[in-house]
């Protein structure tokens, strides 16, 4: 064959804008003004910075900006450039945009490494073309793209799980391959955690599974069990997919945290140690493309960088959103079955729809429900991974995407209906722990907001786009309809959401359908509405998140803390943790301060075990400070021995804090912007208490609403329902269907023996002080009953029903004042209300002890 002639050297342009304009096959005559502005600012300010964040809102063309800068750097500096996307769909989408829209050649790399085309690999290695691939291709124990000079990270605001997963061991007992490991770790932890925690962890108590229950193993405990913990994980992960992340963190376990959930564990560091990954660390230039700059240093926490230079969206552009959205909140007016019918009707009207769900389980449920729609083609994320053409060409189709905030775009007529099922605010157990157990959701504000906005922006990708957004599930509905949360959004989003809420209140199913028709027709009737939204937008302003400046000032110290801890430099970790605390002054950061006092104490504890004799005292001081910083947080009391904790908080205080925390979780699960779910539960309880056959179940549900661990058993000699707190409880003998006005000896004997039965049969009751209470309409007792009634309380059934009505009223009022999210101020007020209304376990027992059955009942 003849020798190949050398290719002409590619032209070198002075800047990326000139390069883009030279692409003869581009479909855009020129770049948009905001794109040009941010590229020019990048060239002036950030060209040589190691870490740079570029802010452009969703749908504003940040792919063009990032790809053009990457292509220019490849040519100008002869660099190898890797462009990272969260998913395969987005890799393929980016490559198509580069080739078909921008006239720029780029190579997509997805799937298995061994299947990469040799020619494509060579083109990348020689710096001839940009490589577009997934996060996992870099954040991997054996990364294929280990030699990039510039790494461009698209959707960096969604990167937490994609990056953090590399150093995360997630153990799920529902997966057969993880089950033995889960049980073995639970057995190791059993002597060190509460009985209730152990029962939830192992699945014996299911009532907390739907409230997002999460706990963390304190560092003092993890230190005690370190060797056994490592040995078990070594043994059980060897033949599973968990071996890769476990091998990365096993020698750094003291720098990690162990979180527990219902039948699950998560082991990971607070901040991902990206500085240990050569493929990422050695790149001379890293560009983070984001719809937000991550207020309060969130981007640094997500990516493990100390400092990221930020280039904000061009002035004026960040006051606009892209396209028009019509929000529909059917849960504000309709029952669940009507919501399903409404969604199916909207799908029929729209022809094509996209549905985002929080999990595969939820996606499967949705598929079952939409199967009722005739002649409908259903696509999964995998079905449109390579191309969405089959979906777009279908006249009647639905794409159901599970577990995705990010996703493929559906602009223009490709889709006019986006259904968003209840996407959770917390993406993993660590985020859930920070938000709910430490009362520090403030830390996650930017992260949560960006994920939600990213989800609802799938179908509005240009100024001319418009899409109906059908919101279901209480958590997302509460978030988007909360006026305080909305105040932190761009004005146009605020106006759209306010309009959507107004149209969703006190309406019927047909009203939703009629409004959808008007919106999709996009005619004169909608133009009048459009004018109102635009007018409202002008009167609205975006408020910054509180305490952002303090969080931003602290973040570089937080990363330094994690670096020191990872290197077993506990002295450095302690110094940096204390330095973080110096920055956190705002009252809103009390929960986060408590967390950093704990982290300081943990570093001091490790230091003391290296022989620093004074560090042990420092650890205890910091743990005490954690408790005092936010005594509404029951988790912090697990840091010290009971006697030491009692010096700060009494056992009753800790029990009350735990009760309030559980009430908060239960009420949040019922929704804060509507009373429908609460009213349904209230109705079930009140009607059940009037029915002798449903009385016991109603009693169980009432106890759960009051924040107690509850149960009931149908076995022989078992008691009726029980309510338990950490160290105290009550167990009932319900004799509500009594046909006589007297209590027999057998009933009395059973009631007196119930605490012993619980102690023997119920794990969560072991060691608890249990009070037995008879609930009955009787006024008398047989002579043989009285010897058994000396320590048994008595509650007249009608009085119990009246008390239940009162208790439900208090819970309704607490729900009315509950913000959309964990709130320490609300917890403090709720604790006071429970004490004033005598609804704590201590006061319930105290009041009932004043009516002992032996004295309350008269002899026959």
Number of spatially distinct domains: 5
Number of helices: 36
Distance between the termini: 116 Å
Outline the low-pLDDT stretches.
Answer: none
The amount of helix comes to: 40-55%
Q: What is the CATH fold-level name of the largest domain?
A: Rossmann fold
Structural class: alpha/beta
Indicate the radius of gyration in whole angstroms. 30 Å
Keywords: ATP-binding, Helicase, Hydrolase, Nucleotide-binding
Protein name: DEAD/DEAH box helicase
GO molecular function: ATP binding; helicase activity; hydrolase activity, acting on acid anhydrides, in phosphorus-containing anhydrides; nucleic acid binding
Domain Helicase ATP-binding: 43-311
Task: Please describe the topology of this protein.
Elements: H1 16-22, H2 33-45, E1 51-55, H3 62-77, E2 81-85, H4 88-101, E3 106-109, H5 118-125, E4 130-134, E5 150-153, H6 160-164, E6 169-172, H7 176-189, H8 195-201, E7 214-216, H9 219-224, H10 226-237, H11 243-249, E8 257-261, E9 264-268, H12 278-281, E10 285-290, H13 298-303, E11 309-311, E12 324-328, H14 336-350, E13 352-357, H15 360-370, E14 377-380, H16 389-392, E15 397-402, E16 417-420, H17 429-437, H18 445-456, E17 466-471, H19 474-481, H20 483-486, H21 491-504, H22 509-521, H23 524-538, H24 548-566, H25 570-583, H26 590-608, H27 615-629, H28 642-646, H29 651-670, H30 676-689, H31 695-705, E18 709-711, E19 722-724, E20 728-734, E21 742-743, H32 745-761, E22 769-776, E23 780-781, E24 792-796, H33 797-817, H34 824-836, H35 841-849, H36 853-856, E25 858-859
Parallel strand pairs: 1-10, 1-11, 2-4, 2-5, 3-4, 5-10, 12-17, 13-15, 13-16, 14-15, 16-17, 20-22, 21-23, 22-24, 23-25
Antiparallel strand pairs: 6-9, 7-8, 8-9, 18-19, 19-20
Helix pairs in contact: 1-3, 2-3, 7-10, 14-22, 21-23, 24-25, 25-26, 26-27, 30-31, 30-33
